[in-house]
Sequence to fold (493 residues):
Amino acid sequence: MEEDVKTLDSYKITLGNLITKVDIFWRKNEFVPNYHVSVANISRTTQLILEKIRKEFISKVSIAMEEVSGEEGVDIIRTKFEKEIKHLIEQYFSNLDKETSDLLISYVIRQNLGLGDIEILLKDPSLEEIVINNSADPVWVYHRKHGWLRTNVIMPNEARIRHYSTMIARDVGRDITLLNPLLDAHLKSGDRVNATLHPISDFGNTITIRKFSEKPWTITDFIKANTITYEAAALVWLGIQNELSTLIAGGTGSGKTSTLNVIANFFPPNQRIISIEDTRELTLPKQLHWVAMATRLPNPEGKGGVNMLDLVVNSLRQRPDRILVGEIRRKAEAEVLFEAMHTGHSVYATIHANNSKETVDRLTNPPIEIPKQVISALSIILVQNRNRRTGKRRTFQVAEVLEGGDPRVIMQYDAHTDTLKSVAKPVKLFETISMYTGMAEAEIKKDLDEKVEILKLIVKHNITDVNAIGMIMARYYTGMLNKERDIKAAAQA
Fold:
């Protein structure tokens, strides 16, 4: 690192037998931090020679990349590539041991059959988004901790970006062409991909990859990050325990799906849970009785599509106790879900809205437009917010839904103190719980205090594994939880 550079972070990631060093830093007079990747066990000189080998290899290979289709075809061509590349590497590098030879072969293979240096970025668990805007600009990434960063990864030309888009489309049985220049798909890893071709995107071909989180967010992560407080988490837990339907609202990138995953930590093990998503992002504890379903886009002929409404209607025939829905977008979906709430199912879903009032307005106006009186089947609205300037994600509001369908805020985020504060005592929430359980208000408050105590122990022992938290909840619901012993044991497992 040269002078006038402030290092923000530094770590290593491993891709196969390649070790890649990541440096994140501010450079003086630049307005965006840099994300710099370098392959630690391949020198710059070796990389230049490998690029020469790659170009020579391309000119020699008889099978064009465009002919690759299906996993079997890729395996056949990979075997052919390995033999040709090994021969070329032996010409340029004499007396290589097998380990180094395999390292160099895999490096060149990835540049031709895979997504090249993008695969290194995909391997970084700290990244949420990877964005290719065109071949003139560097690749951008969104980092969980540092926000948007400019990388030192650059696409050599527009053809390479288009090739990556075509390869992704082919893997999911679709195509992207000048006649069909837009693509929505997902990688085998679950990462969601959007691609566009020039001239639809003025400055060049684009690819946007929203990464599937290998390690799901847990309530411990949220509390440690100050995203939610112990008291708010305990209140949501109380609602879930008593089968009160909850809607998670927020803007794009506010963490709605992550929050849905987090509150699913509180589900009991003896109920049937069905999740419905466009692309599977939820990961629930293995102790749960869980069925995951995902929508499917139609094929190029317009056949075989399965939409969200199809799955919501189908889920009601599977005797669910709890239904999780990735996002409510249309009137038909909302009508079925609210009908499910009225018939005794607990529903948990996300919706685009910036506060609890806007959530109700969105539900009662086009395009969703359901009657306001129906909304009273919903009990809790949990609003998430992301500050685009600081990158902080916070629970912005916790609201209860009154008899007539209006929201009543009981917890509100204070930006000045960066805290979520209680602004009103729950009324309808406590009345509903009391009506179905017989608990007096003092007993409900005692129950909340116990939940806060359990959450503090979970955070104290830094239990961030979704299955470990699932085990604690399973023991809690079955009356077998010894708080100190079992939570400590979960931390050591």
